[in-house]
């Protein structure tokens, strides 16, 4: 809770870029390249420069444990709930670069505070196996599914990245139908941020528009909306009531490049309005606390209001983006959750004051027992 | 003295001429994300040239270029460098250094006024087909 606003971070990631998670078929040198890329461009380029926040590459790529990630959100920050997105990139990692099993553990240790989105590996040619995996994840509490448009392989024969477009009735729609059959109506898609060397169609938004029209009873979150193809992201919100802009990583720009963030959020608000924009950081990619603090303090620059017609970010707009919108999607009764978590272990620890950045993760890596 | 150009090649006898030549070639390289948006914008007009330094070297010129990316995670830097090197081939240019700035401070205002106008017109075209009530 910050300034009386209930905060739900719509994307948390329990990363595991550790050496132990490298799949045997992935060349160690290639894997090291991925580790470095994830650190350099995921963490280093957008992390707060205030003391204590910048992780070393070793700290960032180490496996993130549930207790330590929960500590970041609920003790080191003012976040009340998170949506954990797991991500499977089968060409690199054995257990996923953001692990579902760690998400399940997060939900076990903070049951009222965690929602789970399970990863769907659409590149597994055994569709029955993927469906079985989706069923198991729902049994373990998944209320949404996360899709990633490439598995990281480059198909030399086609001279393009192996990719999935979600407007394909034969390749993509069966996964949405399976989700619906399982009662899962919320789908999220990595978009806008490159997943490999060209072409850009895999991370463009157009296919999601088609899917949203074909499945009007389901919600489609475009993750990283506005990071690229900004105008299309805004206009897509205008056109499709069941598409949501998920700001994972986009909102992180507010820390070191607030003017860039102003253009993105201004455009999305101007076209899409405040009710379908979801605050999300992707933490542990960056620490959640500086982002939340800067977001709360953020005001749309006057010259951009005058020159571009961007709306102001009022307290009400922030309230919607910070939690009310994602709560509405999932039918979360915020006052009821507030009551339930007010006396949980995380609230008790937070009441003692914010812990130092990444404290539990660093303590674990240093070999000492993590803070209890 | 700068090397003599072959027949038909642009003469590069002053710093200004070199900067003009290099900028024109760089701007021939289209930003792939702008192309995906339906508006092909060159790297100079995108505001991706952070620094362009030219100095005499070996009877010709040394060009030092620093580019910036629109956002962290952009994987097209390899394509940018390759495409630029393919285009900047001139006997008077003895050395071309291409680097990338890590400032990551690009905003839409970094684009040239003509690129901003192109995007505004593109946006207007998109909006002209949006039904006033939202869903078609």
Helix tally of chain A equals 16
Low-confidence segments of chain B, ≥5 residues, pLDDT <50?
none
Q: How would you state the average pLDDT of chain A, rounded?
A: 93
Strand order of the largest sheet of chain B: 1-2-3
Helix content of chain B: 25-40%
Greatest interface (CB-CB under 8 A), with counts per chain: A-B, 29 and 30 residues
| Number of DSSP-assigned strands of chain A | 10
Structural class of chain A, by secondary structure, is alpha/beta
Can you summarize the main beta sheet of chain B?
A: 3 strands, mixed
Question: What's the arrangement of secondary structure elements?
Answer:
The complex is a heterodimer of chains A (372) and B (136).
Chain A: E1 8-12, H1 28-44, H2 57-61, H3 66-74, E2 81-85, H4 100-109, E3 114-120, H5 127-139, E4 142-147, E5 150-155, E6 160-163, H6 173-181, E7 186-190, H7 206-214, E8 219-223, H8 230-239, E9 243-246, H9 253-256, H10 258-272, E10 277-278, H11 288-297, H12 302-308, H13 315-330, H14 334-341, H15 345-351, H16 359-365
Parallel strand pairs in A: 1-2, 2-3, 3-4, 4-7, 7-8, 8-9, 9-10
Antiparallel strand pairs in A: 5-6
Chain B: H1 15-27, H2 32-36, E1 49-57, E2 60-67, H3 77-87, E3 93-100, H4 113-128
Parallel strand pairs in B: 2-3
Antiparallel strand pairs in B: 1-2
Describe this structure as you would to a colleague.
The complex is a heterodimer of chains A (372) and B (136). By secondary structure, chain A is of the alpha/beta class. Helix content of chain A is 42%, strand content 13%. Chain A is built from 16 helices and ten strands. Chain A has helices spanning 28-44, 57-61, 66-74, 100-109, 127-139, 173-181, 206-214, 230-239, 253-256, 258-272, 288-297, 302-308, 315-330, 334-341, 345-351, 359-365; strands spanning 8-12, 81-85, 114-120, 142-147, 150-155, 160-163, 186-190, 219-223, 243-246, 277-278. In chain A, strand 5 and strand 6 (160-163) form a beta hairpin. Chain A is globular, with a radius of gyration of 19 Å. Helices cover 33% and strands 18% of the residues of chain B. In chain B, strands 1-2-3 form a three-stranded mixed beta sheet, with helices on one face. The model of chain B has no long low-confidence stretch (mean pLDDT 86). Chain B has helices spanning 15-27, 32-36, 77-87, 113-128; strands spanning 49-57, 60-67, 93-100. Chain B is an alpha+beta fold and 136 residues long. In chain B, strand 2 (60-67), helix 3 (77-87) and strand 3 form a beta-alpha-beta unit. The A-B interface holds A 41-42, 45-46, 193-194, 196-201, 204, 227-232, 235, 238-241, 256-257, 259-260, 263 and B 32-33, 36-37, 70-76, 78-79, 102, 104-109, 119, 122-123, 126-127, 130-131, 134-136.
């Amino acid at each position: 809770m910050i300034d009386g606003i209930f905060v739900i971070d719509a994307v948390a990631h329990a990363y595991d870029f550790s050496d132990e998670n490298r799949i045997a078929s992935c060349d160690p040198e290639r894997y090291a390249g991925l580790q470095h890329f994830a650190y350099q461009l995921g963490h280093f380029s957008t992390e707060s420069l205030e003391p204590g926040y910048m992780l070393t590459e070793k700290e960032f790529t180490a496996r993130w444990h549930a207790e330590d990630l929960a500590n970041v959100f609920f003790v080191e920050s003012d976040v009340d709930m998170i949506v954990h997105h797991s991500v499977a990139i089968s060409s690199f990692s054995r257990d996923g670069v953001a692990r579902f099993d760690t998400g399940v553990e997060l939900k076990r240790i903070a049951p009222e505070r965690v929602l789970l989105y399970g990863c769907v590996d659409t590149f597994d040619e055994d569709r029955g196996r993927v469906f079985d995996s989706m069923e198991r994840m729902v049994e373990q509490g998944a209320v949404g599914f996360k899709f990633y448009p490439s598995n990281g392989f480059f198909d030399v024969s086609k001279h393009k990245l192996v990719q999935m477009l979600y407007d394909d009735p034969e390749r993509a729609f069966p996964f949405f139908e399976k989700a619906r059959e399982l009662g899962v109506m919320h789908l999220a898609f990595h978009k806008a941020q490159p997943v490999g060397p060209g072409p850009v169609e895999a991370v463009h938004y157009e296919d999601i528009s088609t899917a949203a029209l074909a499945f009007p009873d389901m919600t489609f979150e475009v993750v990283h909306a506005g990071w690229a193809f900004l105008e299309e992201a805004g206009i897509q919100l205008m056109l499709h009531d069941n598409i949501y802009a998920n700001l994972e990583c986009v909102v992180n720009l507010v820390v070191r490049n607030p003017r860039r963030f102003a253009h993105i959020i201004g455009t999305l608000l101007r076209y899409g309005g405040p009710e379908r924009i979801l605050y999300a950081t992707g933490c542990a990619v960056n620490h959640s606390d500086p982002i939340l603090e800067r977001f709360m303090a953020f005001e749309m620059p006057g010259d951009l209001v005058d020159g571009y017609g961007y709306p102001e970010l009022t307290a009400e707009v922030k309230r919607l983006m910070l939690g009310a919108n994602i709560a509405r999607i999932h039918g979360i009764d915020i006052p009821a959750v507030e009551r339930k978590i007010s006396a949980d272990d995380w609230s008790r620890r937070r009441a003692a004051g914010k812990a130092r950045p990444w404290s539990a993760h660093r303590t674990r890596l240093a070999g000492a027992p993590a803070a209890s | 003295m700068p090397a003599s150009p072959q027949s038909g090649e642009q003469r590069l006898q002053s710093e200004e001429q070199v900067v003009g030549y290099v900028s024109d070639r760089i701007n021939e390289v289209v930003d792939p994300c702008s192309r995906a948006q339906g508006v092909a914008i060159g790297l100079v007009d995108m505001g991706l040239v952070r620094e362009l330094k030219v100095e005499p070297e070996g009877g010709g010129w040394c060009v030092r270029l620093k580019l910036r990316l629109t956002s962290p995670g952009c994987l097209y830097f390899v394509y940018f460098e390759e495409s630029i090197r393919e285009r900047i081939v001139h006997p008077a240019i003895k050395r071309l250094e291409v680097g990338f700035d890590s400032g990551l401070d690009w905003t839409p205002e970094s684009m040239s006024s003509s690129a901003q106008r192109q995007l505004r017109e593109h946006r207007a075209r998109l909006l002209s087909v949006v039904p006033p009530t939202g869903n078609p």
